[in-house]
Design a protein that fits this description.
alpha+beta, 19% strand, two-stranded antiparallel ribbon, 3 helices
Length: 101
Amino acid sequence: MQGEDEQMTGDELRAAKPEKDSTVATIFEVDLTTVRDPLLAEASYRLVGVYCDTGSKHTLLYGQLRALFEYWTVRHIVADASGVGQGWSHFCHPDRPLERR
């Protein structure tokens, strides 16, 4: 979860301040049929979408993430909980309990 920057956002902000934190949501589809495959014997993951944001206001970012999660019918969120990501992951997906690992 990145901080807000009201003057610039996106590629412009990343070019001007490459150290600036960004929010990235990567959406995977889980294929459990490969669990029965004797060679794989595990689930497979297929990348279906990527969202990246730098510098947007958190109120705008929240709406964009919620819409993304609803569009893809997200069941689980894995988040970096070392900063504001912990609160945001629960805030964006309140129906699911947080798992800490």
